[in-house]
Amino acid sequence: MKCSVKKFSEMYETVYRDLYRYALCLMKNPQEAEDAVSEAVITAYENIHKLKKEEAFKSWIFTILTNKCKKRLKKALKETPGREEELPEQATAPDYDLAIDVKKAFFVLSEEEQILVGLSVFGGYCSQEIGEMMRLNPNTVRSKRSRALKKMECVLGSYGEDEKERRE
């Protein structure tokens, strides 16, 4: 596909917020998320000629971002062993407890589960689109997403019980 700078920026403008939210979810760090998005955008711009249809831009750039995030996470794990067990710090304001619990529940998921839930929730993709991006059957996507969400629900249930015990 031929694409001008203006056309690329118009397409990017429609997805940049979702890209950042998705990267933040995977990377767990705002600076790392910004770097991953920047790398993905540069790669997308350099390879825009490989995109066949403009309608596929969103899934195409999310696939690039997913790959950039995976690469950065693997590199970070090699540099700092034990990082996979890190969890975000507890917030002091009680209003943020639920958000922190949801974040912790998300990080309990495997990498594949995080990607599935992230693309579904943050990217707004259907199982057919996610299946195409991840080379999975749409039925497999739905069942894996369902299991991942149930896993999060179980984790959230146990966090809720822990919080209840702390208050009593």
Automatic annotation (TrEMBL):
Family matches, as InterPro entries: RNA_pol_sigma-70-like, RNA_pol_sigma-70_dom, RNA_pol_sigma70_r2, RNA_pol_sigma70_r4_t2, RNA_pol_sigma_r2, RNA_pol_sigma_r3/r4-like, Tscrpt_reg_LuxR_C, WH-like_DNA-bd_sf
GO BP: DNA-templated transcription initiation
Keywords noted in UniProt: DNA-binding, Sigma factor, Transcription, Transcription regulation
Official protein name in the record: Sigma-70 family RNA polymerase sigma factor
Keyword Ribonucleoprotein: no
SUPFAM superfamilies (alphabetical): Sigma2 domain of RNA polymerase sigma factors (SSF88946), Sigma3 and sigma4 domains of RNA polymerase sigma factors (SSF88659)
GO molecular function: DNA binding; sigma factor activity
Protein family: Belongs to the sigma-70 factor family. ECF subfamily.
Annotated ranges, domain HTH luxR-type: 124-151
One Pfam family matching this protein: Sigma70_r4_2
